[in-house]
């Protein structure tokens, strides 16, 4: 089967032919129909994540082996199933939960596989991802029926949607009229805004460097916007929200954005750190204590959270970010990654099989 793989850190995706794996137990093979392109794939293409003064976190340290097949926002159809699987091949479309844990640690036993402390099996890192004709999923339990959701939008729910939904759970409860800042109005930021609005929040401050991104944020439900880069960004955020913010979800998560959020925060507020752009905290530690601030990390979300999100998307007319569809080929994998790296995409990019 064809995969579109990176053979070395920093290299372009190449079309390779690989052997289709044998299916055991409840494993399934999924024919990929839609594969979202996430900004974390840009870091994975580079082969590392920036840890600020702590150096780099190499993709190989996470268990990746080259050639690496990226892509973790997957919608597709079952084309083959293991002997113990109950699903059968057909044209029913599924969203694939890609954040697969070891299956043995306490977190995995509690259905919190994104907290796994063992040997992770995430699609697109430790296992081949969705930039491919087909993807091997180790158990049918990781398939969530798409229903009547648009498949390209549905693909984005597996990461940007799930990450947004899980991050929002970490700031709640927040009174609907209290300001919440969403820092970074790219794919995950736009989904965060859409979900906050769908869940009834009424004071959403979007922060981004791009005027176009902020236009998208307003269309998705932001009630105020801030152009990043001012001399006193925390003051701009407070002014936009009408008072100090109750919470911030930081989809950039570098030293500047985290400091701006924390200086803008009301006593007892919560910062959820999500972005992987790199850097480190530079905020005064004493103020964390004096102001009773909460700082929480968020890495994607759990399978139960994905199921909750998909039900919300099926039952609610969620605002959808702009989506650019491209053919699922090596050339367009590279084009999409370049577009995200250079901020030339408006909204999201999703690769679609011919």
UniProtKB/TrEMBL annotation:
Its cofactor is Zn(2+). The keyword Zinc applies. Residues 187-313 form the Alcohol dehydrogenase-like C-terminal domain. The keyword Lipid metabolism does not apply. Keywords: Metal-binding, Oxidoreductase, Zinc. SUPFAM superfamilies: GroES-like, NAD(P)-binding Rossmann-fold domains. Pfam families: ADH_N, ADH_zinc_N. InterPro entries: ADH-like_C, ADH-like_N, ADH_Zn_CS, GroES-like_sf, NAD(P)-bd_dom_sf, Zn_alcohol_dh. GO terms for molecular function: oxidoreductase activity; zinc ion binding. PROSITE patterns: ADH_ZINC (PS00059). Residues 27-146 form the Alcohol dehydrogenase-like N-terminal domain. Belongs to the zinc-containing alcohol dehydrogenase family. This is Alcohol dehydrogenase catalytic domain-containing protein.
């Amino acid at each position: 089967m064809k995969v579109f793989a990176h053979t070395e850190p920093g290299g372009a995706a190449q079309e390779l032919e690989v052997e289709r794996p044998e299916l055991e137990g409840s494993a399934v093979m999924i024919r990929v129909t839609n594969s979202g392109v996430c900004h974390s794939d840009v870091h994975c293409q580079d082969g590392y994540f920036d840890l600020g003064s702590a150096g780099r976190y190499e993709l190989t340290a996470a268990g990746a082996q080259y050639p690496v097949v990226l892509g973790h926002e997957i919608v597709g159809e079952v084309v083959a199933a293991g002997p113990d699987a109950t699903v059968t091949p057909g044209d029913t479309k599924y969203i694939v939960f890609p954040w697969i844990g070891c299956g043995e640690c306490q977190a995995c036993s509690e259905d919190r596989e994104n907290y796994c402390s063992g040997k992770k099996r995430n699609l697109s890192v430790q296992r081949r991802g969705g930039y491919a004709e087909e993807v091997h999923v180790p158990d049918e339990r990781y398939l969530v029926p798409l229903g009547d959701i648009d498949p390209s939008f549905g693909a984005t729910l597996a990461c940007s949607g799930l990450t947004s939904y899980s991050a929002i759970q970490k700031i709640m409860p927040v009174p609907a009229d209290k300001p919440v800042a969403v820092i970074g109005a790219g794919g995950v930021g736009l989904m965060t805004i859409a979900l906050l609005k769908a869940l009834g929040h009424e004071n959403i401050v979007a922060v981004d460097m791009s005027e176009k991104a902020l236009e998208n944020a307003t269309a998705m439900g932001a009630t105020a916007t801030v152009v990043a880069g001012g001399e006193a960004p925390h003051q701009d955020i407070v002014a936009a929200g009408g008072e100090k913010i109750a919470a911030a979800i930081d989809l950039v998560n570098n030293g500047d954005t985290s400091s701006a959020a924390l200086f803008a925060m009301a006593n007892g507020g919560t910062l959820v750190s999500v972005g992987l752009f790199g850097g480190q905290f530079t905020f005064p530690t004493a103020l964390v204590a004096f102001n009773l601030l909460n700082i929480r990390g968020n890495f994607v979300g759990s399978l139960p959270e994905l199921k909750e999100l998909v039900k919300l998307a099926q039952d609610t007319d969620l605002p959808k970010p702009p989506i650019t569809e491209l053919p699922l080929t090596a050339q367009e994998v590279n084009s999409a990654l370049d577009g995200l790296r250079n901020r030339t995409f408006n909204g999201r990019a999703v690769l679609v099989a011919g």
